[in-house]
Amino acid sequence: MKIDLTTIRKYAAHSGLSEATAQRIAVEEAFLRRAALVDGPFMLKGSYVTSQQIDEGWRRIPGDLDWVGLDGVDAGVLTAWLTAVTETELDDGVRFRSFSENAFLRMIEYAMDDDFPTVNTDIVAWIGEHKLEIRDMDVSFGLKLEPPPQPLLYRPRFGAPFMVQKSVAAELQMAWKLHQCLVRPRFKDMLDLILVLRANTVDVKLVWKALEDECRHDKTPLEHFNWLLDRTIGEHPAWRRLSNGRYDAGECFSVWRSALAANGALQLWESQLTEVYIGGRELLWVEFEQLVAELAMLLEGAGFLRQPVAATEAFHREAPTGLIDTLARWIGRRD
């Protein structure tokens, strides 16, 4: 399939996406198709994977392309890979500027601590003669990948399906999202957990092992998992820290799902529902309590169990308190 602006415009009108977002996705999927051909020591993670694991995955609007470099990968290997991907020519209506023409990697460290550095770059492409700049493609390093990467049959919005040889396992990405809920809950992580659990049977033992590893690393008490099962995650202190105590979790949720611009007095530090899920206001929960109840029900149905306090004493030491660590725990991993 040859991608053009008319095709993208029609898709945007039919799906409810903005035309600019549809153009971005078309280019990022074109990059992903080329990356699948080049292969290389990089694993795809994030919302592009989530959208393939859920029912009506076209509704989940991906935020950006996220990758993890496997063991032994350095900046030189990454630069060579990005160059090879952007120089791969396909007859799909999209062409990329060679990464070698402007090879740069921003160093950012918003992961759980500086053991997990992340580099960030931009990609320039053209759909026909229309130029687009795809910002904020991230590649992280140093993450423990257990379960290991798995192949993924990717069904794009534009063009024929193709195989991505290395993508994050559903259990590992679920563990990352659960860990984020324990550290600083985000509505989009809770949304993704529900959508994945609705559509999949997961290996709870694998999820739990990965979650234990995450909690052990940054000393997050595992007993906080009970907040999800007990439906008390709304009492997490992070909600009120967002607004200096002025808003509770339910009020934050109302802002998140609102079709209007975010409350200027309340910065959620995450994309709103309309930016991550097409038709979310009509199809999903009206009240925060409904979201919490469904997540608890699905976790229990999958086989997750409450954690006794005594089982988590080893995790009760102080968490990292450096500036980067604090910001990382607050903002969390993207997607």
Explain this structure:
This protein has 335 residues and is an alpha+beta fold. It folds into 2 domains: 5-168; 172-331, no CATH class. Helix content is 42%, strand content 14%. The protein has 14 helices and 8 strands. The chain has helices spanning 5-15, 19-38, 47-53, 75-86, 170-183, 187-199, 204-218, 226-229, 237-241, 249-257, 273-276, 280-283, 288-302, 323-331; strands at residues 42-45, 66-69, 94-96, 106-108, 118-127, 130-140, 150-154, 162-167. Strands 1, 2, 3, 4, 5 and 6 form a 6-stranded mixed β-sheet that branches. Strands 7-8 form a two-stranded antiparallel ribbon. Helix 1 (5-15) packs across helix 2 (19-38), helix 2 packs across helix 4 and helix 6 packs across helix 13 (288-302). The two termini are 28 Å apart. Mean pLDDT is 89; it is low at 109-113 and 311-331.
Summarize the SSE layout with pairings:
Elements: H1 5-15, H2 19-38, E1 42-45, H3 47-53, E2 66-69, H4 75-86, E3 94-96, E4 106-108, E5 118-127, E6 130-140, E7 150-154, E8 162-167, H5 170-183, H6 187-199, H7 204-218, H8 226-229, H9 237-241, H10 249-257, H11 273-276, H12 280-283, H13 288-302, H14 323-331
Parallel strand pairs: 2-6
Antiparallel strand pairs: 1-2, 3-5, 4-5, 5-6, 7-8
Helix pairs in contact: 1-2, 2-4, 5-6, 5-7, 6-13
Question: Quick recap of the structure?
Answer:
This protein has 335 residues and is of the alpha+beta class. The protein folds into 2 domains: 5-168; 172-331, no CATH class. Helix content is 42%, strand content 14%.
